[in-house]
Amino acid sequence: MIPMRETVMVRLLRGAVVGMGQCFERMFARMGMSEHAFHVLCLLLSEEDGTCSPSELSELVGASRANMTRILDELSGLGFIVRESDLRDARRTVVHITDTGRAAVLAAANQVVDPLRQAFAGLNRDEFDTLDALLRKAIESFDTSLSAPR
């Protein structure tokens, strides 16, 4: 028999993810970039030297390698990043954020603050903290179940 509680929980989580995606998709579209593109720029900005490999970005953003290539093509076309050969290993590529990319992500970050707060306005501080803790625990549980022998 299919476990009803767990099935409903999966549906609730998927609904929350879809709703969150729809909420932020419009906001990022108005800024002229995708949510993943924004996250890539944030990650590059947070790196001391402003660089990262495409595979690392793919893992950190949670995008497939093929999708990351598309995202990097988008950002490159906007002049927000450049791709270069790694100085230590010419077979590898590194992604650098440009000054234009830095300016774009900082401007976008300012536009994200209020919508982010509005998205979670229905939760008080304790509820938000509880949701944070439970989601982290669920993610750990998912990770553990993925690595369990079958």
CATH topology-level name of the domain at 26-105: Arc Repressor Mutant, subunit A
Supply the CATH architecture of the domain at 26-105.
Orthogonal Bundle
Q: Helices and strands, in N-to-C order?
A: HHEHHEEHH
Order the strands across the largest sheet as they lie in space.
1-3-2
Description:
The protein is mainly alpha-helical. The chain has a domain at 26-105: Orthogonal Bundle (Arc Repressor Mutant, subunit A). Helix content is 70%, strand content 8%. It has helices spanning 4-31, 35-46, 54-61, 65-77, 99-119, 125-147, and strands spanning 51-52, 81-85, 93-97. A 3-stranded antiparallel sheet has the order 1-3-2. β2 (81-85) and β3 form a beta hairpin. α1 packs across α5. The protein is globular. The chain starts with a helix and ends with a helix. The model has no long low-confidence stretch (mean pLDDT 89).
Question: Can you tag this structure with a few keywords?
Answer:
globular, three-stranded antiparallel beta sheet, mainly alpha, 150 residues, 3 strands, 8% strand, single chain, Arc Repressor Mutant, subunit A
